[in-house]
Amino acid sequence: MSLVRIFMFGLVALPMTQSSLVRVAQADEAGVAVDAKNRVVFTEERPDWSRSWVVVSRQAYWPLCYESLDRTEEAAALIGKGKPKELTAALEKVSAWLLLAASAANTDGEEGIIGAAGRIDDAVESIASQENVPSDEKLKNLMTLALLVTAKSHVLRADTFDDDARSKRWIGSTDVKAAETKKDPELKKEIAQEALLKAKTQYRHDTEQSYRHVMVAQAYLAAAEKNSDIKFDADLLKPFDALKADTSVFEMTSYFADEIESRVTRLLTAIAAQRKSLIEKL
């Protein structure tokens, strides 16, 4: 029996076999960390405790960001192999990962992610009961759909942050009134500078998280292309540079608008079109 480890992801326990453990990242020729399948990988550095971040969820999430992709590819590889028990077990894992993706993106049942999980659950029941068993082509399309909507989950999160106020919350949390009461110009200046620094730091963090989500979404869409005959514009899946370390506030806002928001809009449009086409086949 394979070794089983339980990883806590928020309030969800994720069972993982030994073979699914995250591989040690290596650097490619450009110095970017990649896994054994040449996909860009991310890790989360230990945060500043004074900012009240939750360490476990951040550290646990990014090393697992391709687990759903790997489980989907494993299920796809079992289609047509005459192993119904193994196939249904693999499909159940795909469905479970989709539910986690929907929860992480706060879709409230919208966006088609939970719907895709439901379609896979129906396929599992049909295979188990041997009634109205879906064709291999339909199952393959379901796996492609799973990859598409998981990519969508990441794209949605690329445009959503720790809270809706984004970095503005740091400015609002600064006790400016206390400084005004003391009539101390230097103290007021110091507080204002601290607030701006915190806002900039949070803005950078949010933007870097958005970059990661877009890059991971691109990997899922590339896998969807490989698993089917759908195609995306090559430019849409082309890697792009991360935010530079010495970027100014103005440059960061421009980067987010030009590199993140523009891609989010195009990716959501492309995913919606391909998802609609796939559902028509189902």
Q: Using only CA atoms, what is the Rg?
A: 22 Å
Largest sheet: 2 strands, antiparallel
Structural class, by secondary structure, is: mainly alpha
Strand share of the residues? 5-15%
- The global form is elongated
The helix content is 55-70%
Mean pLDDT: 79
The tally of structural domains comes to: 1
In total, the number of strands is 4
Terminal Cα separation, in Å?
36 Å
- Order of secondary-structure elements: EEEEHHHHHHHHH
Topology at a glance:
Blueprint: E1 4-9, E2 12-17, E3 26-27, E4 33-34, H1 55-61, H2 67-78, H3 84-104, H4 113-129, H5 136-158, H6 168-172, H7 176-182, H8 185-227, H9 249-281
Antiparallel strand pairs: 1-2, 3-4
Helix pairs in contact: 2-3, 2-5, 3-4, 3-5, 4-5, 5-8, 5-9, 7-8, 8-9
Overview of this structure, please?
The protein contains nine helices and four strands. The protein has one domain. The protein has 282 residues and is mostly helical. Strands 1-2 form a two-stranded antiparallel sheet. A hairpin with a 5-residue loop joins strand 3 and strand 4 (33-34). Helix 2 packs antiparallel against helix 5 and helix 4 (113-129) runs antiparallel to helix 5.
